[in-house]
Amino acid sequence: MKVTTVIYLVLAVLGAAAAVLLPLQMYRSGSTALPGWRAAVVPGPLSAAHAFLDAQCESCHTPDRGVEAASCVTCHATAAPELLTKPSTAFHANIGECAGCHVEHQGRDRRPINMDHSVLATVGHARAAETEARASASGEASFRHAVAKLQALLSGSGADLVGGALDRRSLPSRTAATLDCASCHANRDPHRSLFGQDCQSCHDTAAWSVTAFRHPSPRSQDCVQCHQAPPSHYMMHFEMMDRTIARQEHARVEQCFLCHQTDSWNNIRGAGWFDMH
Fold first, then answer.
1. Are the C-beta atoms of residues 57 and 29 closer than 8 Å to each other?
2. ∠ CA(99), CA(88), CA(196), 5° rounding?
3. Is the pTM above the cut of 0.70?
4. pLDDT band at 149, cuts 50/70/90?
5. Which of 68, 30, 76 lies closest to 49 in space, CA to CA?
6. At a CB cut-off of 8 Å and minimum separation 6, what does 101 contact?
7. Which pairs from 141-150 meet CB under 8 Å and 24+ separation?
8. Cβ distance 164 to 132 under 8 Å?
């Protein structure tokens, strides 16, 4: 047998032994059982909130399974009531994978939150599949499948259904349509419900800004379709100050176009830039 062959065999045996013995030793005695190993494998510093776990990898990581939700719940169970009672975080009740959105080892100054809407959409697909499975018992599955397929065809998305749920291959383009945006963002709706709850008709999950939006003509008189006057306009302030500044003594609150310009609310017709506050 050649010397090189013997060397390779010895290295292979040592590698296999290390792959078995190292996790076993750490599983039995904890992270401190093998001094120095952590410096070679840690991907980066923990966030400030989790810094106290720096030398206790087993608090979050489970051998051969990675980070499991059960490990997170061990510490965060006390926060569950608060999370589940707030509309913006109530969706946690249906999430079984914390690591999908909460990412660690990004540095002390980074919060361990990396919101991934596709994870929520995946949960939505799973729940849709469960709903279809229950509906199939009553003979409704084929009808609902046909309706959903027709809706996808009419919308021009080309997305098909697989087992009653949206095909995962169409997930990037269908994420916004799958999620119920208003269930989380209703409390921060800048439109004050004027546009309803169909957020995905304008917005995408990548950013709230709408790049294709173009403001109507400055001559438009339909401002109130999108805009709502501030509380001060419904008080004596509007009659005593606002109408006087704009020289529109007979203007009504809903006639925004008589006083305001479309480039900024502070750009008043005939008065120029005027910032009351």
1. no
2. 130
3. no
4. low
5. 76
6. 95, 113, 114, 115, 116, 119
7. none
8. yes
